[in-house]
Write a structure and sequence with these properties.
Layout lengths: L1 H41 L11 E3 L1 H7 L6 E3 L10 E3 L5 E9 L3 E11 L12 H18 L2 E7 L3 E5 L15 E6 L3
Antiparallel strand pairs: 1-4, 2-3, 3-4, 4-5, 5-8, 6-7, 6-8
Length: 185
């Protein structure tokens, strides 16, 4: 009898963990798509550099309402790295204007996210949650025609150029962060 009760409780616990993970993936996906849409709305075409490789717009983005309201600025890292963190999910994001042809055509809007690697201020998403979120975002951005490229940093870059077969993209336990590069306007 006690074994049956243990199995029932164990089954409930497994289901609860699965539901929690699905809710987190939905929130991560929504946060990134929201941030991309708001950044495109708030930052006009003329504000993108065609010469500077990487402009950090994270702090301006928090102030301008680009991120959902639950995101807050984190202190500068190494004197120049800007991050914003979701107080609900713990997700860390940043916004860049990128002009680097090895990453994406110039100009492009970059939305980066942290994972549980060695970088500071990373999110606590699992590799499975990261993989699901990345695949959903890639599919949504390709459907809308906005995606230019995507890259993951696992101690070295793995880059993908649109069109991307999202089912081939996976986050690893060694993944530090990822960046989506989209058409800025």
């Amino acid at each position: 009898m006690l074994g049956v009760v243990g199995l029932v409780i164990g089954g409930i616990w497994v289901a609860a963990v699965s539901v929690r993970s699905a809710l987190r993936v939905n929130a991560y996906t929504k946060n990134i798509l929201w941030t991309i849409n708001q950044a495109k709305r708030i930052f006009p075409a003329y504000s993108y550099s065609t010469t500077t490789q990487y402009l950090l717009w994270t702090y301006e983005s928090v102030d301008a309402g680009v991120f959902p309201k639950t995101f807050i600025k984190l202190p500068l890292y190494a004197g120049f790295r800007e991050y914003a963190k979701d107080s609900d999910t713990g997700m860390t994001l940043w916004v860049t204007a990128t002009c680097n042809v090895s990453i994406a055509p110039c100009p492009s809007l970059g939305i980066g996210f942290g994972m549980s690697g060695s970088q500071p201020y990373n999110s606590d998403m699992s590799p499975a949650e990261c993989t699901q979120m990345v695949r959903r975002v890639i599919n949504a951005l390709q459907l809308s025609g906005e995606l230019i490229s995507f890259r993951l940093y696992n101690g070295g870059y793995t880059s993908y150029t649109a069109p991307i077969n999202a089912s081939l993209v996976s986050c690893l336990s060694s993944t530090d962060y990822g960046d989506f590069f989209v058409k800025p306007y």
